[in-house]
Amino acid sequence: MWFDILLQVVMILGTIFMFLWMHDIPKKFFTGLHNWRHGSKYEAKRRFVAAAQLLYRAKSTNDQALAGSAAEEADKAIHLDPTDAASHILKAMALHFQGFKTSALASLDAALSPLAAKSLSDEEKGDAFFRRAELRIEVSRLGRSGESDDRVSSVAAAGVEEDLVEAVRLSPGNAKAWCLLGECREVKGMSETAKEAFEAALKADPVSKAARDGLDRLGS
User: Residue 43 has what pLDDT?
Assistant: First the structure.
């Protein structure tokens, strides 16, 4: 009895499969899925370009409203393709321009997540780590304008130095990242490694005033 039932089920499934195959439905389904995915990526790129243009205009005219529109366009691009780190970074830039530093930091975190970071080259990823380090320092200083620079040392211990080490590893020509790494190590009392960072900054940019000032402070 069970064998007969199983045989009927197999025959029904076989009939359904043959019907679908004859009408080319599996191929149409996968073709439609492929076209939808590629269409979404195209639309995401279009939104990204629109966001970049809006942010450029916002910075040129110091227009906060345009920056808000840029962030919205970038968000639409992210919705269409969340794996594109460039859209997350652009959104972070637009939010930072508006003064929303904590939200901008969250967008950079998303850009550097495993899902999105693989869309970046090493140099782009290094720049993103540098931007996040800078932003973390800015966020740490919110509401602390009257306090000394010693507060930066706690920021470095909390992860800024780690971001900067990764930034210069991926993009060794980034003199600003080397300088900030040197400053973080300087306030932590790591004089020798701070000197090394400032020297690397000068190698990347021989006219870097920040690097020369750092070496002067350390007696080099």
Answer: 86
